[in-house]
Amino acid sequence: MKLKSSLGDRWVVVFAYCFIAIFALICLYPFLLTISVSFSSESAIARNGYALLPQLPTLDTYRYIFVNSGASILRSYGVTFFITTVGTAGALLITSMLAFAISIKKLRYRNVLAFISNFTIIFSAGLIPWYMVSVNYYGLKNTIWAMILPAMLNVWNMFLMRTYFSAISPSLYEAAEIDGANYFKIFWSIAMPLSKTPLLTVGLMYALAYWNDWWHALIFVNKKDLFPLQYYLYNILSNVNAISSGRIPSGASGSITLPAETVKMAVTIITIGPIMFLYPFIQRYFVQGIMAGAVKE
Amino acid sequence: MNSGIDGTRIQELKPIKKGFLYEIKRHRVLYLMSVPAVILLLMFSYIPFAGVWMAFTEFNVVDGIFGSPFVGLTNFEYFFSEHSMGWQVTYNTLVINFYTIILGTVVPVAIAVLLNEIRSMTFKKLTQSMMFFPYFISWVVVGAIVYGVFSTDVGVANKVLQFFGFEPIRWYSEPQYWKPIIILASVWKFSGYSSIVYMAAMSNFDQSLYESAKVDGASKLQQIFYLTIPMLKPTIVVLTLLSVGRIFYGDFGMIYGIVGDNPVLSGEVSVIDTYVYQSMRTLGFSYSTAVGLMQSVMGLILVTAANYFAKKINDGEGLF
Predict the structure, then answer these.
(1) Residues spanned by the domain of A43
(2) A166 and A214 in one domain?
(3) Mind telling me which PROSITE patterns this protein's record contains (chain B) (predicted)?
(4) Residue A113 CB neighbours (<10 A)
(5) Alpha carbon of A67: minimum distance to chain B alpha carbons (Å)
(6) How many CB pairs under 8 A join A and B?
(7) Does residue A64 belong to any structural domain of this protein?
C-alpha cells in the first residue's frame, strides 16, 4: 500500500514537470520563432518557412527597416513613448488622489465616490455615444489626447490603490493633522512615500496598458503622424491579411508592396523589444498586484 | 491648517447642523483631490449616457442627437430580424466566451496545482516567467504570432501538416477554424496570469491540513482532489461568476488584433463589440447605439445576478 501510493505520487510529480514544461515552452516558442525569423534571410524563409533557428542569419531586415521606414518607426516610437509617460504620470496622480480620498474613513461621501466609480464598471452607454461625445464635444479626433485621456482612470487600479492606502494606520495622519497639515500634504508626504511599491505596481500596469494600446488609435486616429507603435504594426499586418484572404484582387495586389515575412517579424520584435528587455525587472510587481487584488476578493 | 480654523469657526456658529455644505467645506481638500478623477468619469462614462437617446431615433448629423426623428424600437427590431447579423454575432460572442471561461479556468487551475507539486525553485521560477509573458504583449502582437503559425505558405501549422503527409490548409480563407484559434489564443495569453490568482489563493491554505492528510497516508492525487481543489472552489466560483457576468461582452482587441476586418472570417468570429464598431460605419449611429445599449443592459442584469450569487456563496462578500 505504502509503496503503491508513493509510486503514484512520483507519477504525479513527473506529470507536473512535463505538463508545466510543455505549456511553458508553448508560451515561449512563438517569441523565439519571431526573433529567429527577424534575423533570417528573406529567401530562406520563402523557401523553408519559419524555423526556430535563424536561417542564413543576417541583420539585413533590420537594416532595411531603418533605411526605408526608420523615420516613421521612430516617430511611432515617439508617439508611444509620449502616450506612455504622460498617460502613466497623469493616471497615477489622478488615480491615487481619488483612492486616497476614498480610503479616508472620516470622509462622509466616500461611498458616493466609490459608487460612481464602481457603477462605470457594471453599466456603460456603449461605444457609439462615447465616441460621439469624444469626437463632437471634446474634439479628440486625430489628437494625441484621444489615446491618453480615456484610459487615464482605471477603476480596478483605483480600488487596488485604495486597498493599499486603507492599510496605512490613520494614526499616522492624525499626528500630521494636529500639526496643521492639510490632506493633500498628508497624501503627498505621508501616504505616497509609504506606498512606493503599490505605486510602482499600479504605475507599471498603466504603462503596460498605454504601451500596448492601439484600439484608441484605431477608433480616433487616421493621421499617420500620430500612429503609435502598436497601430503601426497593426496596419502592416492587416495589409498582409487582406492580401492573403484573397480580398484584394490579384491585379491590385501587384501594386501594393507586401511587407516581407522577415519585416513583419522584425517590426513585431521592435514593438515588444522594450517589454522583453524590462520583463525580468518588472514581472514581480505585476505578480504582487495580482496577488493583492486576489486577496481583496 | 485652513480647514481646521474654518471648521471650528463654523462649528461655533452652527453647533448642531452638519449638512452637505459643511462636510464639503470641512473636507474640501479631499473632495478637490477627487475632482480630476470625477471629471474623467463624467466625461467618458456619464455624459455619454445622453447619447443613448440616439438608439430610439434615426440619427442624422443635421438634426443632432435630440433633433433627429423618433422611431421608437425600430432599431432594436432590426437587430432581431433575419436581415441583420444580430443573432449570429450574439451566438459567436456566447460560444467564444463559453469555451474561454471553461478552458480559461481548467488550464490555470491545472497550472497552479501542478506548479505546487514542483520542488525545484529554479524550474518553477523559470517556467512561471515563461507562462506569464504572453500577458504582457498586445493583441496585435498576438495577431502577428498567429499569422506566423497559420500563414499558408510559411506558417508552422502547415509545415507540421505537410510533415505528417497532410495537405496544407489555407487557414485565412477557412472561417470554421477561427473560433477555436481565437479561444486557444486567449487561453494561451491569459493562463499564466490567471494561475497567479489561484496560486495566491493557495498560499493562504492551512498547511496543517496537508500534514495530517500525509499522516493518514493520503496520496498526492487524493490531496489534490480532496483538499486543494475543494479549497480553491470559492475562488473558482467568484472568478467564473465575474466572467459569466461579462459573457455578452466580446474582446474587441482580441478579435481585431487577430483577424482584423477580414470579411471572409468575420461571419464566424464577429462578436457584438466588433459588430457595433462595424455597423457604426455601415448601418449608422442609431442602430449601432441600440445594439450597444442592449449589450449594456444584458450585462447589467447578468452582473447584478452574478453579484447576488457571489454574495450568497461568499458570506455576503460580493464581487465588488
Answers:
(1) 1-58
(2) yes
(3) ABC_TM1 (PS50928)
(4) 21
(5) 22
(6) 320
(7) no
State whether A30 and B148 contact (CB < 8 Å): yes
Residues of B in contact with A214 (CB under 8 A): 138, 140, 253, 257
* pLDDT level of residue A250 (50, 70, 90 thresholds): very low
Partners of residue B4 in chain A, C-beta under 8 Å: 177, 180
Alpha helix ranges (H) inside A167-222? 170-178, 183-186, 192-194, 196-212, 215-220
A70 Cβ contact list (under 8 Å, min separation 6): none
For residues A54 and A196, state if they share a domain: no
The one-letter code for the residue type at A247 is: R
- What is the structure's pLDDT at B317? 65
- All domains in chain B, ordered by first residue: 2-42 (no CATH), 85-313 (1.10.3720.10)
Task: Express each pLDDT in B204-215 by its tens digit.
Answer: 888 898 889 988
Residues A79 and A32 reside in one and the same domain: no
Q: What is the ipTM of this complex?
A: 0.87
Give the tens place of pLDDT for each residue, B280-313: 888 888 999 999 999 999 999 998 998 888 888 7
Q: Do A79 and A45 have their domain in common?
A: no
8 Å CB contact of A122 and B303 = yes
The verdict on residue A66 lying in a domain is no
Contacts of A169 (CB under 8 A, 6+ apart): none
Q: Which of A235, A215, A245 is nearest to B263 (CA)?
A: A245
Same domain, A123 and A11: no
CA atoms within 13 Å, Cβ hemisphere of B35: 9
Which residues of A are less than 8 Å from B251 in CB distance?
none
Place of cell 484559434: B181
Q: What is the pTM of this model?
A: 0.88
Question: Which pLDDT belongs to residue A251?
Answer: 46
Domain identity same for A174 and A222: yes
Number of domains in chain A: 2
